[in-house]
Design brief:
The structure is a homodimer.
Chain A: H1 7-23, H2 28-35, H3 39-51, E1 55-56, E2 64-65, H4 67-90, H5 95-105, H6 111-124
Antiparallel strand pairs in A: 1-2
Chain A binds a DNA duplex through helix 3.
Amino acid sequence: MKKKLTPNMENYLETVFVLQREHGHAHVRDIAKTIRIKMPSVTEALRKLKKSNLVNYDRYNSITLTQRGKSISQKVMKRHKILFKFLHEVLGIDKNIAEEDACKIEHVISYKSLRRLNKFVESSLI
Amino acid sequence: MKKKLTPNMENYLETVFVLQREHGHAHVRDIAKTIRIKMPSVTEALRKLKKSNLVNYDRYNSITLTQRGKSISQKVMKRHKILFKFLHEVLGIDKNIAEEDACKIEHVISYKSLRRLNKFVESSLI
DNA sequence: AAAATAAGTTAGGTTTACCTAAGTTTAAAA
DNA sequence: TTTTAAACTTAGGTAAACCTAACTTATTTT
């Protein structure tokens, strides 16, 4: 039943999370702008996410995460943070590039590598 | 003119590189087995790679890389090695997982992060 | 060399993730 | 309140990456 999300879907979810945290809810427009994608693609993605019970979405209305959606996007955010911290604070990569790279790596790296990386980052920054 | 390759295409190329190094050339069968994908998908990919002048490929024959193909796959291999070294030797991740993760990250990480990572790995292992 | 097997290809189909152009709904201005 | 503009959706199309089933070519075996 719980099919694994694609990188793209994880990204949509993450974006909604951030927008919701800032404004209480997300709009198609803002999601589109954030991911640099056209609105129809967002609409399409939202329909899928709704079908999987990850977002509350009704056409022409604003968007929020369901409980499940929230819990998944928080996990993705955690991954993101660890990677960003490593890239930026340990390796010293510029914020922008560290952000971008984290955003891509977070969807493909294994749980084990991520855990090790986390420990590594924490012990490096004492 | 030089369109950026997709992660998948980079992977096909890398696979041909490895097989060619071991046996002088690659076969559809072996590529399929290595990437764990069915043969028709390999045939399709090879046609595209041929169109971009990256492999020497004629139906029913064995496959080799062109000069361009070789040079690209060597770059990908370099990325792979750096990532693997970091994951396995620095973080201490199991070979198999380190391989897998490297194989995914190598297609998405930026040049800058990779260079820093490389320096970092080299200085860590003295 | 004929038959059997393995390797490779073709045809046609699916899903994901985009897009543009055109139409609809909602919100804001006049 | 009518008009205009912005936000959103629908329809229809494309490209990448896969697949299965059926066919073809090449290689072995007998």
